[in-house]
Amino acid sequence: MRAVLISGGISLLLALLGTPLFIRFLVHRQYGQFIRQDGPTAHFTKRGTPTMGGVVIILATLLGWAAASLVTGYVPSASAVLVLFLMTGLGVVGFLDDFIKISRQRSLGLSARSKIIGQGLVGVTFAVAALQFPNSNFRTPASTRISFIRDTGLDLAFAGATLGLILFVLWANFLITAWSNAVNLTDGLDGLATGASLIVFGAYVIVCVWQSNQTCQSIVSAGPRCYETRDPLDLAVVAAAITGACFGFLWWNASPAKIFMGDTGSLALGGALAGLSILSRTEILGAIIGGLFVVIVLSDVIQIGFFKMTRRRVFKMAPLHHHFELSGWGEVTIVIRFWIIAGLFVAVGVGVFYAEWVVG
């Protein structure tokens, strides 16, 4: 627990104190946000606001985790390194996307093909590596079995190791793409994605600490009241570092935002969420805990699908938060109410997680 507290505390301070320094650097370089012309008109006043704030979130997370490891003497585990690799790798893809937007003053950054290739390279590397590095109990960071609250009986390796690896890589990359795009779509209002991410990653601190306290000591002792997650405490330390970084960054990202996280932050946070859900064996539960992100993605899917079929729109604008903007809701009102919804989803998700353990 000491490592969890140190990780979260240091990353919070780094993000809180480091963000204004990064804002000055971006302002000096004139790296400001480009605003879409077809979006809500209230957003035009945000043009030129510094972006790429995800750099601060990533660096604060890495330094907070490293400091906790040094102070407590923990040897970095494969699980923690893999989540941080996924987070940083997708952050680099997002950084390139943001930099192209800023340098060319347009709303489009990397081409869709380039972004898919970049995300794919990072995702495939993560997925393949996650099935390596067995510990003394022969547990690897990830499993080829689909997981809900723990691994289920649905094993992707049902027809052999090779096919299982391929199917797992596809499944993992589906989750990585889905979560990174979900957080990216949510990042449309000041503080919305940052606050929601803070709540969700905070929930994963609780989940992983609980798993650590109930870890099965051997394959033989595995039962309904213990978990087979390989490195739950290390995952809790990573989740705490991300939570602290989001907490510190939110001080400057809340309305009126002094800086935006950009694709650098949203892709990184989405990747970290995917990594935590895969390695903590809570892939389906993650969709409940991060339910707000799921709802926002679904609003976009519904809008596009319904329009293609009927040439009519369900919402005034998608994603969902822009619909409420065009309906006359204030930005702060939308953000706070969406944070409440995110908290309700987290409460349900953590409640389901605990109830499953109680029932056994």
TrEMBL record:
Its cofactor is Mg(2+). Keywords: Cell cycle, Cell division, Cell membrane, Cell shape, Cell wall biogenesis/degradation, Magnesium, Membrane, Metal-binding, Peptidoglycan synthesis, Transferase, Transmembrane, Transmembrane helix. GO terms for molecular function: metal ion binding; phospho-N-acetylmuramoyl-pentapeptide-transferase activity. The chain crosses the membrane at residues 6-27, 48-68, 74-96, 156-179, 191-212, 232-252, 259-278, 284-307, 334-355. The gene is mraY. It catalyses: UDP-N-acetyl-alpha-D-muramoyl-L-alanyl-gamma-D-glutamyl-meso-2,6-diaminopimeloyl-D-alanyl-D-alanine + di-trans,octa-cis-undecaprenyl phosphate = di-trans,octa-cis-undecaprenyl diphospho-N-acetyl-alpha-D-muramoyl-L-alanyl-D-glutamyl-meso-2,6-diaminopimeloyl-D-alanyl-D-alanine + UMP. This is Phospho-N-acetylmuramoyl-pentapeptide-transferase. Mg(2+) binds at N184, D263. Belongs to the glycosyltransferase 4 family. MraY subfamily. Catalyzes the initial step of the lipid cycle reactions in the biosynthesis of the cell wall peptidoglycan: transfers peptidoglycan precursor phospho-MurNAc-pentapeptide from UDP-MurNAc-pentapeptide onto the lipid carrier undecaprenyl phosphate, yielding undecaprenyl-pyrophosphoryl-MurNAc-pentapeptide, known as lipid I. It is an enzyme of class 2 (transferase). It is a multi-pass membrane protein. It holds the Pfam family MraY_sig1. One of its GO terms (biological process) is regulation of cell shape. PROSITE patterns: MRAY_1 (PS01347), MRAY_2 (PS01348). The keyword Disulfide bond does not apply. It comes from Cellulomonas fimi. It comes from the Bacteria. It is found in: Cell membrane; Membrane. One of its GO terms (cellular component) is plasma membrane.
